[in-house]
Design goal:
By secondary structure, the chain is an all-alpha fold. It is built from 23 helices and 2 strands. The chain has a two-stranded antiparallel sheet. The radius of gyration is 24 Å and the shape is globular.
């Protein structure tokens, strides 16, 4: 059901009290949201255009599973020799599952075997760089221009990587694809969170993640039919050509325009949104201009990463939030890889692992709405932590139980990841929201870069990876106790708003997520 018609009937106008006789301070505090409504057809259309951007995010991040899938091989010159013998300089590869991967393309075997994992580590580092770089660009130049530029880079480098004849050229192009992918992730999410009203933010922050889950799921289908890595890489990359249309289809965030001092452009976007949502437009200009006179935008719009750490309360919230992003990066990718080690059909394993993410993502919608962000994140981190710790006490040969517990842990992380996205989007003030989420995303990528090495500790001791994957989420859950609940609270705009939010006794404090 669309919210706009409800708002027209029930919400009080300026100077008018609500049905219960109390001033509707929530609307008066946020004239930007008041003008465009909490949810209407305009919001739905913008999200419907932006959400598909998450498909290539999943394809590029998970693609290495099939691009660099293991192939059995033997020494080509003499099959009686050990395949990694110094006398062997060429190899014959088993093409029964994949006709060609980057392993058989560039002979990434024996002493070169680690180059496959290294290429993925470099890719994840690119996601890290992209989140920070494009997050900063988006806070300075708006959400839409950096997002469109990132899409174009993603398209060109992704297609180029499919046909470049050199391994290190492939790695460089994949790195640039990752930088662009990290940019599309942070800019698109912030744009969505800045237009959706607080009442619907839980739902849409989770719906935003579902195309990623579906992208992960469909990746197995692409790989099943495209057994040559060239064709697979091209297919996963060419989709981005459709996303170039964002230059014409996606509006700039009116909240960014207002905060950066571009009041006239903000009013134009808000009037367009109001008309589409069948809301009144007569008072938008006067309301926004009046509110603009009470804010100082020029200096605030130039926020940078250091502003996240200048004041004590905002600094503590930033550190606790960033650690929980680290938890998600480490445990999500680490547990997924742990499940992948179970053997069997690679296409089925990836599909099952991706399918397990969907229930957690859908459960997340209810939990964040019913219990808020804080309790949801504590519960999901605890679920992952306890199930992974339990694996440490299960004998290694009981494979079905280990995989079952790890699957429950993955469900927990599929709840935590959408939660930290929304939690961070509501916690960081507008002037540094992009750079804040970009920084948190950077920390998550550090976790995802470490995850393969942690999973590899299983060769040392069976219990070591589960212990690490279990204790880290529990520490993250402990830190969440020190964060304020953000449910139902207006988005903080300035650094001062961000510092004051969550302080006990402050007039803007929300209690239990409600006014």
């Amino acid at each position: 059901m669309v919210e706009s018609n409800i708002e027209m009937r029930d919400r009080p106008r300026d100077g008018v009290t609500a049905k219960d006789g109390k001033s509707d301070s929530k609307w008066n505090l946020d004239p930007v949201q008041k003008a465009m409504g909490q949810l209407g057809w305009w919001h739905i259309l913008v999200c419907a255009v932006v959400f598909p951007l998450k498909f290539p995010v999943a394809w590029h991040q998970m693609g290495i599973i099939f691009l660099g899938a293991a192939q059995d091989y033997t020494c080509a010159s003499n099959t009686t020799l050990d395949k990694c013998s110094k006398q062997c300089s060429s190899w014959t590869y088993d093409t029964s599952v994949f006709s060609k991967t980057i392993i058989s393309e560039w002979d990434l075997v024996c002493e070169k075997a680690n180059l496959v994992n290294l290429s993925q580590t470099i890719f994840m580092f690119g996601i890290l760089v992209g989140g920070v770089v494009f997050g900063s660009l988006a806070d300075k130049f708006g959400r839409r221009p950096p997002m469109v530029i990132a899409v174009i880079i993603q398209l060109l480098t992704g297609v180029g990587a499919a046909y470049i004849p050199w391994f290190w050229g492939f790695v460089v192009l994949r790195f640039l694809t990752a930088v662009a992918t990290g940019g599309t992730m942070v800019t698109s999410f912030v744009l969505v969170m800045e237009i959706i009203g607080p009442k619907w933010r839980e739902l849409f922050s989770v719906l935003y993640q579902i195309p990623f889950n579906l992208g992960h799921l469909t990746l197995a289908g692409f790989a099943y039919f495209l057994r040559d890595w060239h064709h697979l890489q091209f297919a996963l990359s060419i989709f981005s050509i459709l996303l170039v249309s964002y230059y014409w289809l996606v509006p700039e965030s009116p909240r960014y325009l207002f905060t950066s001092g571009n009041t006239d452009e903000a009013i134009k976007v808000l009037e367009t949104a109001a008309k589409r949502n069948k809301l009144p437009t007569a008072n938008i200009r006067s309301d926004i201009e009046e509110y603009a006179r009470t804010k100082t935008h020029g200096a605030a719009a130039k926020g940078n990463v250091m502003d996240l750490f200048r004041t004590p309360n905002l600094r503590a919230k930033t550190l606790f939030m960033c650690f929980n992003w680290f938890v998600c990066g480490l445990a999500f990718f680490g547990v997924a890889q742990y499940i992948g080690h179970s053997g069997g059909d690679i296409f089925a394993n990836v599909a099952i692992g991706a399918a397990l993410e969907l229930p957690g993502t859908l459960i997340c919608i209810y939990m964040m709405k019913a219990y808020g962000r804080k309790k949801t994140l504590i519960a999901s981190n605890t679920l992952t932590g306890l199930t992974m710790l339990a694996i440490a006490f299960v004998p290694e040969h009981i494979n079905w139980l280990n995989v079952g517990l790890a699957s429950i842990g993955l469900v927990g992380m599929s709840i935590s990841f959408p939660t930290v996205y929304l939690y961070a989007g509501e916690l960081f003030p507008t002037v540094v929201r992009n750079v804040g989420i970009g920084t948190a995303s950077m920390i998550a990528r550090i976790g995802s870069m470490i995850a393969p090495f942690v999973a590899g500790f299983g060769t040392i001791a069976h219990w070591l990876p589960p212990i690490i994957f279990g204790l880290t989420p529990l520490v993250g859950a402990f830190f969440v106790f020190f964060l304020p609940e953000t449910q139902g609270h207006p988005l903080p705009e300035t650094i001062e708003d961000g510092e004051n939010f969550g302080k006990k006794g402050h007039k803007d404090q929300a209690e239990n997520g409600k006014y």
